[in-house]
Design goal:
heterodimer, A: two-stranded antiparallel sheet, two-stranded antiparallel ribbon, 36 helices, 1% strand, B: mainly alpha, 6 helices, globular, transmembrane helix (chain A)
Chain lengths: 858, 143
């Protein structure tokens, strides 16, 4: 099974090469892969139907309980068949639909990657693996929705879908971790089979809410449903595949998968039934308001997803039976309907039902297929949709806990009949209406029709022979969802009972509503202001809030003043560590230490150097004094027999001094810009840190929290690691992973310094043409867009605000100098504020020269 | 800063660079048993070129180094990474040290190992990083 997923990814990998030779025919070639997988999975139907569960184990990170083990049971088999089966036709369809599109290549790659991710998601046994695939489907979905990235609407919709699903994904991750804690394993099979009950665990409520957030966002449940209709900006094959048959069912899949362990509680029932019913109604109601074929279908998908959640919430055996049947039925007819809507759009040039009419003469096959699929959508016999709908109504009557659910479901099913009628009748009957001329409208190639034909036929066959579909496909899935063997069967005819009556009522009411659809829609416009305040408003509000918070915290915390950063970091450190220290430990004053004379000497030098560094008025002096501090510390290391540290310290100090000397002359001249108060404050901060560090060291000497690991390291350094230098053994063997990370950090830091120096030689923004092109080839910026110095920007800003007349460059400069010498922070930006503050004439000269250099336009 | 004609510095730099480089290799190789190791050795090696840099300037130093410091970083990270994987072939977790002792004629034993490869990686990464910064700063200064 791992191979099955891998094969799809490999297919995605080779697509670009094949595309060079075969162009749009690549898609027909690529369809072989999912087709073969469909047959392979179909070959397992008898095995799974007999109650077996197929497990293919594969270790990934055994130490963290993460594996690539894949499980095939009734539920994952049904999903796998849908993914590969519908996927085959989608790939074929995309080949024809996007024929001649310049990016068809990219489309196929992402589509196949999505297919692999989705297949991995439904087969994965490990929660972490499942999560990885889950996120992969989100990302590929993002790329597919935004496929027409020239359109702003597509980009926006893609981002919206991504943000909603990925935000839910984060919650899901938290839920997964909690589930693993409660269930004692990351393996779904183990959690499901474990005897200890997850539902009685203390974490249950939090876990459930997190998991539901993940599932609800992914499966477009109310109030997160808004991203799905917007996702219709994607090309039709994507809508047909991701946003009806597969990806949006991932959340439903997860809930169904975990239902045996998580389900059955009051909380589960209430949340799932309520939100399911709300989603169902919202979807159906919004569908009624739409006139775009794809929007109609998208909202009816929302409705179907709500139904599935509702059935999971009801949780009776009958509901499970209905769940599996409804899922299958919906995937079959909705995939077909989307593809057919795409055909209409493609051929007639519009998806607006109000602009279409009388197409049945020109698109006879499409018309018939749409009609049959819509019958299934409306739940009319003898289609499979009817079987599923009857089960839904039966399960609801038997198990729903509140009257409002009945009401929402019945109203929803009336609306959906209307929607089905709109889709099936409006574009094809009545007087001819289409943006394209009638002669140009003709049936699409067989590659586009193949999918709808097969799916609609399956809907019909499954409806006529429900026992067959039930036995082979939905029954094993039902058992997997219920966790036990469910005794039930699918049938077209249940006798004259309440559900049948309800069906008949909703059919008649729906058809009446269809008659007055245009008028109803107009009247529903009254509600527009209320709908505009719907959940999507919340999304925009949320996005604005993110920007606002980011801006606020940037202004507060990231204001560019180095001293501010340091102060914040240091004070937070002092606060947190100091609190822990004082609240948990007692400090024992122990002055009974014997020190040698030379140790006191070293200490004296250290302190003297430190004081010199902080009071000196010469930069070079400060650097030298800091060097003195460093070398003295190295001496301390050597005195206390840590030669490695001593050597390292000396070398680092030497190089630091060299580096400092090199940058020294690039700094603005030394000047006192802080007031006495600020200096006292800074001194106080520095003292606090010093005191805290002293306490910390005293504590570490005093308190031995646990056996130090150094004993083990010393003992095993030679026998295990063949090295006598423990420091080195730790670096390259015991803690090699850390060191590996560190050298990468070091390399990145060096690159950062390099980029800063090299690509900004004039310290003026925009001065260099190759900014930000460390890795990419240089990008040419047109000459007119290049700003040569800060002054120019300043001048431009002042001109814009009519403060100075254009060309009054000198006045601006003077203004700037005045402003700079007033500036309290950011000395780096005011190199020309040097008058009168020099104590080293050479330094002043140097900076004057630099200033002169800067003024010349480069 | 790079004034021509400081005779003593010129002469000293010429002789000290090879010595320091040799010393850095010595530190690198003995690091597993005695004070030393890739990090220290890398710093010593960059110290050698830093001296040269101060004496003769960036262009000459680049010439002498022959390899761009950025490439040195790359080499370092590459060595670091390849020492990660040999353990996999023995079915052990990543980064487990692997040892291949080789007996040379004359009774000398050379111990090749992944920690050694790793240490060489650290050496080059440190060496390259420091030189990259130093040369970049010097070049900016010379402009």
């Amino acid at each position: 099974m791992q191979l099955a997923v891998l094969v799809i990814y490999l297919a995605a990998l080779v697509t670009p090469w094949l595309f060079v030779q075969h162009q749009h025919r690549t898609a027909y070639l690529m369809a072989i892969v999912p087709a073969a997988l469909t047959i392979w999975f179909a070959g397992h139907i008898p095995l799974i139907a007999s109650g077996e569960v197929l497990i293919h184990e594969f270790a990934w990170i055994p130490g963290l309980d993460i594996s690539f083990t894949m499980v095939l049971d009734g539920l994952s088999l049904m999903f796998a068949l849908l993914i590969c089966g519908i996927g085959t036709f989608i790939v074929l369809y995309a080949g024809a639909y996007l024929k001649g599109h310049e990016d068809q290549n990219r489309f196929l790659v992402v589509l196949l990657s999505f297919m692999g991710s989705m297949l991995g998601l439904v087969l994965a046994d490990n929660l972490i693996t499942l999560f990885v695939f889950w996120e992969l489907t989100s990302i590929t979905s993002y790329l597919l929705i935004g496929f027409n990235h020239h359109q702003e609407s597509a980009r926006k919709a893609a981002l919206q879908g991504l943000i909603v699903t990925v935000a839910g994904g984060l919650a899901l991750l938290a839920g997964i971790v909690m589930l693993a804690i409660a269930g004692g394993s990351y393996s779904i099979q183990e959690i499901l089979n474990s005897s200890n009950s997850v539902t009685s665990h203390a974490l249950y409520t939090g876990m459930l809410i997190c998991l539901l957030l993940g599932a609800f966002t992914k499966s477009a449940q109310f109030p997160f449903h808004f991203w799905l209709p917007n996702a219709m900006a994607a090309p039709t094959p994507v809508s047909a595949y991701l946003h009806s048959a597969t990806m949006v069912k991932a959340g439903i899949y997860l809930l169904a998968r975990l239902q045996p362990q998580l389900g059955g509680t009051e909380l589960w029932t209430i949340i799932l039934s309520t939100f399911g019913a709300l989603t169902l109604f919202t979807g159906a109601f919004m569908a009624l308001r739409s006139t775009d074929l794809k929007k109609l279908l998208a909202y009816s998908t929302v409705m179907a997803l709500g139904t599935l959640t509702l059935l999971l919430g009801i949780g009776t055996e009958l509901a499970m039976l209905g769940f599996a049947a409804y899922l299958l039925a919906h995937s079959l007819y909705k995939g077909a309907l989307f593809m057919l809507a795409g055909i209409v759009d493609h051929e007639a040039g519009s998806r607006e039902v109000t602009e279409l009419g009388g197409l049945r003469k020109y698109l006879p096959v499409t018309a018939v297929l749409t009609g049959v699929a819509a019958l299934s959508l409306a739940g009319i016999p003898p289609l499979f949709g009817f079987v599923a709908k009857e089960l839904l109504l039966e399960a609801m009557i038997e198990g729903a806990f509140a009257w409002f659910i009945y009401a929402l479901v019945i109203v929803g099913s009336i609306f959906i009949v209307t929607v089905a009628a709109v889709i099936a009748l409006r574009p094809f009957f009545g007087a001819f209406k289409a943006p394209k001329a009638a002669e140009k409208i003709h049936e699409p190639p067989i590659a586009m029709l193949a999918g709808p034909i097969v799916l609609v036929t399956l809907s019909l066959v499954a409806g006529l022979l429900p026992g067959l579909a039930g036995y082979w496909i939905t029954q094993p899935a039902t058992n997997a969802v219920a966790g036990t063997v469910v005794d039930g069967y699918l049938a077209l005819w249940h006798g004259i009972n309440l559900p049948l009556m309800l069906s008949a009522v909703s059919l008649i009411a729906g058809l009446i509503l269809f008659k007055v659809w245009d008028g109803t829609r107009a009247r529903l416009r009254v509600l527009d202001p209320i709908i505009a305040r719907g959940p999507e408003r919340g999304y925009f509000w949320f996005m604005d809030a993110i920007v606002w918070v980011a801006e606020w915290q940037t202004r507060k915390l990231q204001n560019g003043s180095m001293r501010n950063y340091l102060r914040t970091i240091v004070l937070v450190f002092v606060g947190l560590t100091g609190y822990t220290l004082l609240s948990r430990y007692q400090i024992h004053w122990n002055f009974d230490v014997s020190v040698y004379f030379h140790e006191i000497m070293v200490l004296g030098v250290l302190v003297a150097a430190a004081i010199t560094a902080s009071v000196t008025h010469s930069r070079l002096g400060a650097v030298a004094a800091m060097g003195g501090v460093g070398y003295t510390i190295a001496l301390v290391f050597i005195l206390f027999s840590a030669p490695d540290l001593g050597i390292t310290q000396i070398l680092v100090e030497t190089l630091t001094v060299i580096l400092l000397v090199l940058v020294l002359f690039r700094l603005p001249s030394f000047s006192n810009i802080s007031t006495t108060r600020e200096r006292i404050r800074d001194a106080a901060v520095a003292l606090t840190v010093g005191v805290l560090m002293t306490f910390l060291i005293m504590i570490t000497i005093d308190v031995q929290l646990f056996e130090p690991i150094s004993g083990y390291m010393i003992e095993n350094s030679y026998p295990l690691a063949h090295g006598r230098n423990i420091v080195n053994v730790i670096l390259v063997d015991y803690r090699a992973l850390d060191t590996l990370g560190e050298i990468f950090v070091l390399a990145l830091a060096a690159m950062g310094v390099y980029a800063m120096i090299k690509f900004n030689p004039q310290t003026a923004p925009g001065a260099n043409h190759f900014a930000g092109t460390l890795i990419l080839p240089p990008k040419k910026i047109p000459e007119k867009d290049i700003v040569h110095s800060l002054d120019e920007i300043h001048q431009a800003m002042l001109e814009k605000e009519n403060i100075v007349a254009p060309g009054d460059f000198d006045a601006t400069n003077e203004r700037k100098i005045a402003a700079a010498s007033d500036a309290e922070s950011n000395p780096d930006l005011s190199p020309d504020a040097s008058d009168g503050h020099d104590d080293d004439p050479n330094e002043g000269e140097q900076s004057d020269q630099q200033q002169g250099k800067e003024d010349k336009p480069s | 800063m790079m004034k021509p004609g400081t005779l003593i510095l010129h002469a000293a730099a010429r002789f000290l660079v090879p010595l320091q480089l040799l010393f850095s290799v010595f530190l690198l190789l003995r690091g597993h048993n005695e004070p030393g190791g890739g990090f220290i050795a890398g710093l010593v090696a960059s110290g050698a070129f830093a001296l040269y840099l101060f004496t003769f300037g960036a262009a000459v130093t680049r010439d002498l180094m022959r390899v761009d410091p950025r490439n040195l970083i790359g080499i370092g990270l590459f060595f670091g990474m390849i020492s990660v994987f040999p353990a996999l072939f023995n079915g052990e977790p990543l980064l487990t040290a692997q040892w291949w002792p080789i007996m040379l004629p004359g009774g000398t034993e050379i111990k090749l190992s992944t920690p050694l490869i790793f240490d060489i990686g650290v050496y080059f990464a440190v060496f390259g990083s420091v030189m990259l910064m130093l040369i970049a700063l010097t070049e900016a200064e010379e402009h």
